[in-house]
Specification:
The complex is a heterotrimer. By secondary structure, chain A is of the alpha/beta class. Chain A contains eleven helices and twelve strands. In chain A, about 35% of the residues lie in helices and about 25% in strands. The longest helix of chain A has 18 residues. Chain A is globular, with a radius of gyration of 21 Å. The chains are: A alpha/beta, B alpha/beta, C mainly alpha.
């Protein structure tokens, strides 16, 4: 029996307005996550993963962005067409985001305590001063959950007094103060050292297992996705190109991009470094017609420059957007 | 016979950051490092933040003056800042920086950028420069029209290629690479690494390659030194390093590398839980600087800094597991130090 | 297979196009960023209008002679009418004409002041930033601080009062107190750019100090300087008006905005047009330069 569908993105298109026209970044993104799942979103710089996540919470720059098409169904309601009150509820109680750079995500002029408590107050709809003690208790509990010592004192500290790893933990604490349906973690720990990143990822894993919160883990590191997720989406130039269970992706990568990517990763076992993928990511002002990967694809066919491939199901839970697998 | 082209002897670099009652406070970024690099090889320097790896690179290239210790390049002492070095030395030793965004002047075109080393080191005249620029660009597989582009108009990987071309323009024999691909995507990294390896073979270059990415090191370096808080913990050739890691810190690092295949999983040491933060280089713990986080410490680790011991030819470790052979109840007997 | 390296409009491709088409592409792109904010376009329109009026003053004003020695007592103190659009001043001269002519002095003054004050200020800031942390830095910046600690208007008044009151001396006074702002501005940028890797790369290659200062560091400090210069035109005009308000600037009969405001002040509120219109003109001009300055800042920060 499958768990219920939590978030379902259908055919999302996002354009940015720039000098010269529109950057057609997202070109029909399909993505879903069920309750309790851990899904990874893997892609390189510029593929649109952050844009997708920002669209979910509707934090794209208003003036310069446009969503010509698409639906983002959260508990079966379209976030893109929600009114302000419902959207506010989604942001304060439903979905929490952990940003990539913890230093930029924390306001340097307020104490950690002030920021944590602000989040809690919004989530719990607390208005009266009387409930201050509950708020403070919740804050301390959240800091304990992320294994930060000396919580009382920490509430009075400023972000600049903490190390990078501690700041990242604070950001995670802010996301789990109240139970949420979905966590979106954007490259957690990327800006930190490897051993610290390892700690942070393990912490996230524990937290998610404990509360069976769903989590979308965005990363450019396939290794991290492999260890931390049940299912992985591979993204290229504004489209999802492959999706399957984590271990399966590494044993049987189907899309030529996934294969090229895996081959380019240097391995601990040696064997030299592969040649990489020739070419560059497409110019979003004038993206290629048809499959956006076809200019770089070693297995390109004629149809690839004419039409866009859909997600074809190859196995149970293994889908690829490539004409090589069209039935 | 592999000639040693660079010799670092007991290098120390301290930065003064203030004073307290007991005297001046120093950041001991590099605290007694000895290394030598042979001609044509790639020496990998691995470590986390605060380990001192970048400081060593910057001292070798002349951005800093050593506080103590010596650096010999082709037999000559080069332990001084770049503006006191000879032009021929500056020509012979080049560096590629980590962040492609800030290593290229945003107000200069690629051509102007490459003109500088061509003009200064190779004394080319105006008409000759254009041909040389095209040649350099082609060598890093960029088409000649890149000459007119500005750094903002090209991607990160291409910027690094330009940075490499700039280093090559002087026709050096030694290049310091400070995390050249850390800021880039994996597919772009692969291209650059391959190009670097090709260039090394073609032009008989020697590399000092700094990174925090162990998997990359495995495939790039011929010898690897791993650093923690200003000292080298372990030094070995690449294959030996990964098949037989000895120092607990090495094993801890290796166990935190995310694997992409079952074979890699099998090769990694079992997961060693790293606890605690990396201490700051202002406040280096006593004795062996790793003892606070070490899962395998013994009674000596807090008080005494272990020296480097050569356990098998070319494989050196700095760890009390190997310097003392404690027998129950008796005083510990130090193993013979083959070096210090 | 389509060529992936399409030359798009966003690409900074200044390739082997001819000089003119390269300029035009750059201009179009900069205009796009500048005009995103409509107010900046309004500012630019105002500035262009003021400049054109100043240049062609004798041709566009109804009574060019009124800007010189001219007296017409019968028409003194006339309210705005079809004959005298903004009314006349206490000795019968057309206010509209005099305002337009006063733009000449105002613009001339601000442009000369900036042309003279900015280069030394820039260079001192550049040197102080390059030698950041050394005694050269300390000397330069402490001298700058001293100048900055004197209230600007007081300093200008003091200098102008010591010298003979005329336009040149007013300019000298303002110039002397203007350069330190640029030193401080450039100092901040230069000290951070100085440590950027591309500067270090040039130094490691043995580039000369001159090259480092003027070809590597300076071009990266100029954006805020240009923005400030645009805004400063308005400020200098204001300071100049303050000086002429107390009689230290353009001497009669040459019209100056501040002087016109002060002349008409004693006739307030009955003959209000004699003060209000010159004051409004000051506001109008400064507003234009401010809005244009905003636009320049947007334009310069957009593509970086």
């Amino acid at each position: 029996m499958e768990n219920e569908m939590l978030l379902d993105i259908k055919g999302l298109q996002v354009w940015y307005k720039v000098y010269g026209g529109f950057l057609k970044v997202l070109d029909g993104v399909d993505f879903y996550i069920r309750k309790g799942e851990r899904v990874g979103l893997v892609g390189e710089t510029g593929c649109g993963k952050t844009t997708t996540m920002k669209s979910i919470l509707r934090i794209l720059p208003e003036r310069d962005s446009k969503i010509p098409q698409g639906e983002i169904l959260f508990h079966n309601t379209d976030i893109l067409r929600m009114h302000a009150a419902d959207l506010h509820r989604v942001r304060s109680k439903g979905i929490a985001m952990i940003f990539q750079d913890p230093t930029a995500a924390l306001n340097p002029v307020f104490t950690i305590g002030a920021q944590l408590q602000a989040v809690i107050r919004t989530a719990l709809d607390v208005k009266r001063k009387k409930d201050q003690t509950t708020v403070k208790k919740t804050a301390i509990k959240a800091l304990k959950e992320v294994s930060l010592p000396d919580q009382e004192r920490l509430l009075g500290n400023y972000a600049i007094q903490l190390s990078g790893g501690m700041r990242q933990r604070v950001c995670i604490a802010m996301a789990i103060t109240t139970p949420r349906d979905l966590l979106i973690a954007d490259e957690p720990g990327t800006s930190l050292d490897v051993t610290i990143q390892d700690q942070i990822l393990r912490l996230l894993k524990e937290l998610v297992e404990k509360t069976s919160t769903s989590i979308i883990l965005i990363t450019h590191s396939l290794g991290v996705a492999r260890e931390m997720t049940d299912r992985i989406y591979v993204m290229y130039a504004g489209n999802m190109v492959e999706m399957t269970r984590s271990r399966e992706l590494f044993r049987k990568p189907l899309h030529p991009y996934t294969q090229g990517l895996l081959a380019s990763i240097p391995k601990l076992t040696g064997g030299g470094v592969a040649r990489g993928i020739p070419g560059q990511i497409p110019d979003y002002l004038n993206p290629p017609i048809g499959c956006r990967y076809h200019p770089r694809c070693p297995k390109v066919m004629e149809v690839c420059s004419l039409r866009k491939p859909r997600f074809y199901e190859v196995d149970s839970d293994h889908e690829v957007a490539c004409f090589l697998y069209e039935q | 016979m592999d000639k040693e082209i660079l010799q670092i002897q007991d290098l120390k670099k301290y930065f003064k950051v203030g004073k307290n009652k007991r005297g001046p406070i120093y950041v001991r970024a590099v605290d007694g490092v000895s290394l030598s690099i042979r001609e044509g090889e790639t020496m990998g320097l691995v470590g986390e933040s605060g380990s001192g790896k970048s400081t060593i690179a910057y001292t070798v290239i002349g951005m800093y003056r050593p506080t103590e210790g010596q650096i010999l390049f082709k037999g000559n002492n080069i332990g001084m800042e770049a503006n006191r070095r000879s032009m021929s030395l500056k020509k012979d030793m080049q560096i590629v920086f980590q962040d492609p965004g800030s290593s290229l002047n945003p107000k200069q075109s690629i051509r102007q950028l490459l003109e500088l080393p061509l003009h200064i080191h190779r004394h080319l005249t105006r008409p000759e420069i254009e041909g040389a620029v095209v040649d350099l660009l082609q060598r890093v597989e960029l088409s000649p029209e890149y000459m007119y582009k500005m750094p903002q108009g090209i991607g990160g990987g291409e910027k690094q290629m330009v940075a490499i071309a700039r280093a090559l323009a002087a026709e050096p024999s030694f290049i310091v690479l400070d995390e050249p691909t850390s800021a880039l995507d994996v597919s772009v990294q692969a291209k650059i690494i391959n190009k670097l390896m090709d260039l090394q073979k073609e032009m008989n270059l020697t590399y000092l390659f700094i990174t925090h990415d162990l998997s990359l090191m495995r495939n790039v370096a011929s010898r690897i030194a791993i650093m923690y808080l200003g000292k080298v913990c372990e030094l070995a050739n690449a294959v030996e390093f990964f098949e037989n890691p000895l120092h607990p810190y090495t094993r801890m690092l290796l166990s935190s590398v995310p694997a992409v295949s079952d074979e890699e999983e099998a090769l990694k040491p079992k997961k060693i839980l790293s606890s605690g933060e990396i201490p700051s280089p202002v406040n280096i713990p006593s004795g062996c600087s790793f003892h606070l986080r070490c899962p395998e410490k013994n009674g000596y680790c807090k008080n005494e800094d272990p020296g480097m011991v050569e356990l098998s030819p070319g494989h050196w470790v700095r760890c009390h597991k190997f310097t003392y052979e404690p027998t129950a109840g008796e005083n510990p007997i130090p193993l013979e130090d083959i070096s210090s | 297979m389509p060529d992936n390296r399409t030359v798009s409009l966003t690409n900074n491709y200044n390739g082997k196009l001819s000089g003119w088409s390269r300029f035009w592409t750059g201009f179009k792109k900069n205009w796009y960023h500048y005009s995103r904010n409509k107010l900046s376009v309004v500012g630019l329109a105002i500035v262009l209008l003021v400049i054109l009026l100043a240049i062609f003053a004798p041709l566009v004003t109804p009574y060019p002679a009124h800007a010189g020695p001219y007296v017409d007592y019968p028409n003194a103190g006339q309210p705005p009418s079809a004959k005298f659009w903004l009314g006349t001043d206490p000795i019968g001269r057309d206010i509209f004409t005099r305002i337009i002519f006063s733009f000449r002095g105002a613009l001339l003054m601000s442009m000369l002041v900036l042309a003279i004050a900015v280069p030394p200020g820039l260079i001192l800031g550049l040197l102080a930033g390059y030698y950041n942390g050394t005694i050269i830095d300390t000397i330069i910046m402490r001298i700058t601080d001293i100048f900055l600690s004197v209230p600007p208007l007081v300093l200008a008044l003091a200098i102008a009062a010591v010298l003979k009151p005329n336009l040149i001396n007013a300019m000298i006074a303002v110039t002397v107190m203007w350069w330190p702002w640029y030193t401080r501005l450039v100092y901040g940028m230069a000290s951070s750019v100085r440590n950027d890797y591309f500067v270090i790369a040039a130094e490691l290659n043995g580039a000369s100090r001159f090259y480092i200062l003027f070809r590597e560091i300076l071009p990266n400090c100029l954006s805020p300087v240009f923005t400030k210069m645009a805004l400063d035109v308005g400020w200098v005009i204001l300071i100049g008006a303050s000086l002429s308000f107390v009689g230290l600037g353009e001497q009669p009969p040459t019209p100056a905005l501040g002087q016109m405001v002060s002349d008409g002040a004693r006739y307030m509120p009955e003959l209000w047009w004699m003060t209000i219109f010159p004051a409004l003109a000051i506001v109008f001009v400064i507003l234009g330069f401010n809005l244009m300055g905003d636009g320049i800042r947007d334009m310069l920060s957009a593509s970086r």
